[in-house]
Structure formats: C-alpha cells, structure tokens
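Field notebook, page 346. I keep forgetting to write these up properly, so this time I am using the form the group agreed on. The chain and the ligand, magnesium ion, are recorded exactly as supplied. Prediction of the bound pose follows.
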Amino acid sequence: MDPKTEVIIQLKNLTKKFKFVTAVNNLNLEIYKGEILGFLGPNGAGKTTTMKLIASLLHPNEGEIFIRENGKLQKLSSHNKDYLLDNIGFLIENPEFYKDRTPRQLLTLFAKLKGYPRKKIENQVEEIVHMVGLSQWIDQKLGTFSKGMRQKIGILSALVHDPSILVLDEPQTGLDPKARREIRELLLQLKNQGKTIFLSSHLLYEIAEIADRVAIISHGILVACDTLENLESQAKSSQIQVELLNIKNMNDINEAGFQIDKLIQSFLSEPIRYNKDSGVFELPFDGDPEKQYKILQILVQNEMKIIDFTVSKADLLETLYLQHISQSDKTYKEFQKKAIKVEKII
Ligand SMILES: Nc1ncnc2c1ncn2[C@@H]1O[C@H](COP(=O)(O)OP(=O)(O)O)[C@@H](O)[C@H]1O
Ligand SMILES: [Mg+2]
C-alpha cells in the first residue's frame, strides 16, 4: 500500500444530533498516515463535535469510527477506546489550565495519566518544553504566561506521551501573528517527525499554510476534501493582477486597459477592471494555468511594461471556500424550508 494513503483514522457515515441541530451529518472522512489534514469550516460547522466523537467524549447517533492499531483498522467502541485512543493526543476547545501549576507539573501529570513510562517522564517533559523554546519557563506558573505560550503548553499536553496522531482543535485561533507562526512551525516539525495531524480552524489561511489536504465542513456536512492544489484547480474563477509601469492618470489607464483587452480578451471570463486603490489591472479568468502562462506571454511579447503579475493563492482559495460554504448554506436553507413545510402538513 502507498504509505501516503494508508488510512489511520476513518469516519464512516458519522452523525451526531443534538436537540435542535444535526451537528455532524453523515460524515465520511479518512485521515492518512503522516499528513496534516486541515479541517476547515465556519463557527458552528461541526468541527469540535467531530473531534469530540473521535475522542469518545461524545457518542454518535449513527456511524462508526475506525482507528488503526497494530496494523489494522479497528472499530472504536466503549470496550476498546482506552487502547485505541492511547496513540492519539487531543487538544479540544481551549482548555483552561490551573494557573498556579507549572509546565513541568502539568505535563508530568498528563504523562502519568496516559501511562507513559515513569522513568522517562522527566526527560520527556524537559525535551518537549525545550523543543518549543520554553525551557526557561518550565518551572514558572502558567498564570504568568502569554496566550501563545499557554497554547504551546496545550499542544505539549496533547503530545507528552508521544502519540503518533494529534487531533488539535483550533490551535492557532486567537493568537498574534508571531505566536501563530511559532505554532505553525511546531506543527510542521511534528509532521516531519512522522506524526499525523488532524487540525481544525475556521480561518482558511491558517489551514492553507500547512495542510497537505483540506476537508471543508459546513452545517455538519463535508462539502469538499482534497489537496489544496486540486481544490484550487476546481475554483471556477480566478484573477490575475497586473501592475504596469507609468500609469499616472485616467488617460494612461484607459489606453493600457484598451490595449490589454485587445490582446487577451479571448482568454478572459469577464471584462478587465482597474483597481484604483491598489493601482492594478484585474483580469478575471478561469484559473487554468495554461491560460495564465499564455496571458503573461502575450503581454510581455507585446511590450506591455509589466512590473508585477500575481495570481493570489489565498484569494483563489478564499473564493472556492466561500463558494462551497454559500452553496451549502443555500442547500441547508432549502432543506429547512422543506422540513418546515413537512411539519406543517403533518
Ligand atoms: N453540547 C451541545 N448541545 C447542543 N448543541 C451543541 C452542543 N455542542 C455543539 N452544539 C451545536 O452543534 C453545532 C456544531 O457545533 P461545533 O461542533 O462546536 O462547531 P464548530 O466547532 O465547527 O464551531 C452548532 O450548531 C452548535 O451550537
Ligand atoms: Mg469549535
């Protein structure tokens, strides 16, 4: 089997209903060994509920969870959950740690609870605290820590017993850019050590920066799951931004716009726009890299004085993400309307 696609966790037709809402709706998802799978969706989409189901903190109404242990996928149940979950580290919904504990105390406690070999605990705790650059803080009380530092300790609490899988719920949310970057680097480092990471966020850019694949969830339904590359190439519309030398007044804009239009009109899906705020021409096209190349080639060959040419990755994905979410919003509303009608008839 291709090690890249060895399934390590499998969710099959997973459904979790609360009184008024189906938080997770017939979810099918596979997590591959060694990947970072980003779990992306707006607030209330069902991310935390899914992770709690994997952690056995909640029980599904329908469906099954399989976890690979000893080389084979085994169905999670109340009988084997301790055994199957031993190899997974969880950080779910910003935990509040006792403020008067130190990282050493907290992590030692977690390691003991998880049955990590006692003799190795001291070393392991020091080693992982060192890994996140907090050695000097190992005996300081958590109450004095910044949010980013606490979050790092939170991630360490999930991995202190050295599991090979990590399930992390919004580990970057609410952090400043520097702390976010540090967490991102930590996650990549863990991936390089061979760990599998299932990571949620409601912000696309947090996921886009590090995930190998992205699963998008909305109203409990999985609306897309693929590599970033494939998702991008599915994006229906895209935009090239071109900045030209010597565009100083309306006349220059009109003239250059007219010329670009004449040269590459046939490649575009909509008319050219000029963005006054950023000073760039925006060329809407279908995202096909072949066309992107042609457009650039033609503009250069015709001596357009291009000083900047970009197809913004984040924008493109953002478009795709919003497309998926709004489509699922629409379907959800229609479904609700029908459900209300049915209720009335009954
Ligand atoms: N314990 C609960 N009781 C009732 N409803 C809940 C409970 N937990 C979550 N929900 C609802 O389930 C939906 C999904 O929530 P959640 O999984 O927390 O979403 P996310 O983590 O993506 O923001 C939301 O509509 C939320 O209000
Ligand atoms: Mg959540």
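OBSERVATIONS:
- Residues 47-48, 169 surround magnesium ion (ligand 2) (CB under 6 Å).
- The chain has two domains: 3-233, 235-311.
FOLLOW-UP: compare against the apo run.
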